[in-house]
Fold this sequence. Notes:
Layout: E1 2-4, E2 27-33, E3 47-54, E4 56-61, E5 64-69, E6 73-76, E7 83-86, E8 92-98, H1 101-104, H2 110-115, H3 117-120, E9 127-130, H4 135-144, H5 154-169, H6 183-198, H7 205-211, H8 216-227, H9 231-249, H10 254-260, H11 266-277, H12 281-292
Parallel strand pairs: 1-2
Antiparallel strand pairs: 2-8, 3-6, 3-8, 4-5, 4-7, 6-9
Amino acid sequence: MDNILEMRRKENSGEEILAGYTPEFPYVSSRTFVSRYDVLWHWHKSVELFYIEEGTLEYETPQGRVICPAGTGGLVNAGVLHTTRPQESHTVQLLHIFNPVLLSGQREGLIYQKYFSPILSAPQIELLPITRDHVDTLEKLRASFRIPPCAPAYELQLRESLTSIWLDLLPLLPSGLEPGEELSSERIKEMMLYVWEHYQEDIRTADVAAAGYVCQRECYRLFHQFLHTTPAEYIRSCRLHAACRMLAEGSETITEISRACGFGTSSFLGKVFRANLDTTPIAYRRIWQNHTN
């Protein structure tokens, strides 16, 4: 299981990069340290099973927010936009991210069509919490991360463990699941990608709307519906994310970072930092460069 400090995204789609994920074995696991301003809205085609090892993590999807304290977990459905925010200074989550066909076999088969497809295609299911009321399932989830890759028949052991967890989740699902319309979700992903590719420039809401082939009014509506924010606030969050990465990893001056990330001046960058992170760019750099050295 890899230790992860930050998320990476594909340049051509905005989809999260899953290092080590292959068609032959479509699965990755990681221990993620969520203590930096580095988790933007993102998505992946695979499902995500998570367990909170330390701290408290807030998950947000278009449907709302869920607080997940240590010792709990959950399922994020395939293709769902989501973001996380640590509620404590040191928060650690364990992640299984996998293609459901790893458990079900071929998509045309009975098992996939009966036990997986109804969940994966249902817009009602974005995040399914696994609370402390489900002790046995949480213990299975925690134990699944302890299977060593060097164990005999590791892949079979892992698949058996994940299948047992999936079976436990079926009774927790709402009834009357129906497939939903994916067009709006694809529009917001296109606009998010445009912002991520152009945040260094002087972009306007009209530019973002054009990237999603919608009018400005619809652009505002989709950002509010899916991300609970405005286009301008999302642009600012992408710029802040980029500035945090440069401060933590590079040696550029504050002025250079301000210009490179679309803030223009160092004074404006400082204002945004104080408003969002309650610190200064210099203090942030000192903390995180000392942390990673």
